[in-house]
Amino acid sequence: MGVFYQLAILKGCPQQKALKCLSALPESVDKNWGFSLAKARLSEKNGSTLIECGSLTQWREFPRALSEITGCPVMLLYIYDSDYWGYYLYECGAMADAFCPYPEEAAGEGEALELFKGNPIALARCFRVAPERLKPY
Description:
6 strands; globular; alpha+beta; six-stranded antiparallel β-sheet
């Protein structure tokens, strides 16, 4: 088993607001999602909060819930060793985009692999960059 790194980016959500929202998540989050606020490392950059998540077990539910409660876009970026990386992007509790170079690793049962090809337009809109800059990746 290798290193699995997970980082949540709360776009436009200051750290103080993020902490308040994280504290409002149900207590079951620790047990069922693998997230611990006590173990998480938070930092703020340009008005957005970065959260080093530790070992989440619910990669989709965590950013979905945070985007819903904060009202901000939330991206969960994950890196597995140097084998692959991917992300889930949620806005207002709904999945706006997802990417994994090995979609069969990310897709749930019955889910179309097409969901994980990434959408540079959705990503660019959220992070306010030109889509052309993201398409090569």
